[in-house]
Amino acid sequence: MMVYMYLAVLVFYGILFFLSRKEKVSFYPNGEKKSYPGEILFLRAALWCMRRMGKTGQYRKRARQSRLGNRLKLLHPELEEKHQIQAFYVRQYSLALFVVLAGNLLSLCLAAGEKTAGVLQEGGYIVRKGYGQGNLEVVLSAQIEEEEPEEIIYTIEEQKYTAEEIGVIFRKAVSELDAAVLGGNDSPDNVTENLNLVTSLEGYPFEITWESDNYSLVQTDGVVRNEELEEAEIVMLTACFRYEEQTFEEVFPVRIRPAVLTAEERRIKEIKGALEEQNRSSRTDEMLPLPVRIGSKNVIWKEVMTDNSGILFLLMCAAAFLVFYSGERDVERSLAKRNRELLQDYPEIIHKLTLYMGAGMTVRNAFGKMGDDYRKQNASGKKRYVYEEILLLVHELQSGISEPEAYAHLGKRCRLQPYMKLGTLLSQNIRKGNKDLLLKLRQEAAVALEERKNRARKAGEEAGTKLLLPMMMMLCIVMVLIMIPAYFTI
Question: What is the DSSP string of 243-255?
């Protein structure tokens, strides 16, 4: 049943990929994230599903409520917020679809493997294990005609030897037993040490038990009690070879009275009795034919298979759910990384601005120069957030926005106190004509450099704290390596 469900999921994915084949996908700028196999198929499928369900507007509303749109805009100010929100959710849905499909394929393989591992053959036969391979335990469901199916656990014995075969094997085992039981003694006529009364011989199917006619000298476990022996005595040891019902010793029967059984227990006992009878009658055969009738009623046999693929499928679905909702955490981590980078680059920006203005440039031209240098030097395409913001500032100035508004926008977009302070300082300079702007910028550069040193010092202290636990673990390992050899040399 589970296999059919997994196949239905595969068919659903095939139809989904076919219907979404014409969707046009604009890839979400995912930074350092790596693509997964067949990413374009899942992106198209996710976009198709979102369009058909009309969820894009709902996601935009949710994004505004959770401030996700603003965070995405901070990370990629060059892109439209509406496009970023849709692209973000398209990618999250595609990841969820990919994880569910991967879980479905793994579950299908697991279910198919368990199906092929069954032992019940067509025609109601179970293949026994070969000689010496051990018994086979199976879970079967037996449904007697007009009765409810009953599940039983039954152990099928390995293939047995015929009476003629076991006789030949027995004679070979006897010929090897003499040397095996001697243990550390050189011959049966000179026994001074314990005997090795083996209970089995490798390569032979016998269970061996021992009897002694003088247990005060030789016990059944082979211990020799010869400390008080005054002269040599002969002890007769008897080895009792047992293979199934064939033995050379007398068997003491015990009487087992039946318990009061319920109807279900009597039915199970009846089924096991029929199986046992079939088992005894076919011990030398390669196949065990299951009984087709029990009493006067027909029996339908089915093998009870353990299918754990459903658990795997549910786990992968849960993983898809977690992958989908972990996207916003990734945005938070990227935003924190952006803030650290902005703070790290702030002293450099202030220093360049001070240098260019000291050379006679205006504030507008200084930002234009920094933007042009960034475009020329950034051949590898590695983005620096502060210079992306400067490029956006230059575009605003070129589009006709006034300088005070553009500088204020820079501070608001960066959302960090140093940049907001810089934006306010530049805006006031334009409005009020502050002649001390260069001096204030130099003071700000000195303060920014000092704060950068403090942040570097704090980061070093945090790194040292993080290394404390590994260092303690290494110390414990070194102490163990030193103490153990010292302990064993005492």
Answer: ETTEESS------
| Pairing relationship of beta strands 297-303 and 150-156 according to DSSP bridges | unpaired
Q: What does the buried/exposed string (b/e) look like for 242-251 if buried means 16 or more CB atoms within 10 Å of the residue's CB?
A: ebeeeeeeee
Q: Tokens representing 335?
A: 């935003």
Which pLDDT band, with edges at 50, 70 and 90, does 253 fall under? very low
DSSP 3-69: HHHHHHHHHHHHHHHHHTTT---PPP--TTPPP-TTHHHHHHHHHHHHHHHT-HHHHHHHHHHTTHH
Judge contact between 156 and 135, C-beta under 8 A. Answer: yes
Read off the pTM. Answer: 0.52
Residue 403 in contact with residue 367, Cβ under 8 Å? Answer: no
| Lowest-confidence segment of 6-15, 126-135, 375-384, 393-402 by average pLDDT | 126-135
Three-class HEC string of 167-221: HHHHHHHHHHHHHHHCCCCCECCECCCCCCCCCCCCCCCCEEEEEECCCCCECCC
Q: How far apart are CA 44 and CA 66, in angstroms?
A: 26
The CA distance from 212 to 220, in Å, is 7
DSSP state of 400: T
Q: How many helices (H) and strands (E) does the chain have?
A: 15, 10
Q: Are 140 and 152 in contact (CB under 8 A)?
A: yes
Q: Give the pLDDT confidence of 266-298 residue by residue, as tens digits.
A: 788 788 888 888 888 888 888 888 888 888 888
Widest CA span in the chain: 128
* Packed helices 81-116 and 68-75: angle between N→C axes, nearest 10 degrees: 100
Distance CA 285, CA 128 (A): 9
Instruction: Look at residues 176, 160, 37, 156 and name the one whose alpha carbon lies nearest to residue 99.
Output: 37
Question: Strand, coil or helix: what is 149?
Answer: coil
Q: Where are the beta strands (DSSP E) in 83-135?
A: 120-121, 125-127
Structure tokens at 285: 């055969």
Beta bridge pairs of residue 218: 224
Q: Which tens digit of pLDDT belongs to each residue from 207-230?
A: 888 778 777 677 778 777 765 566
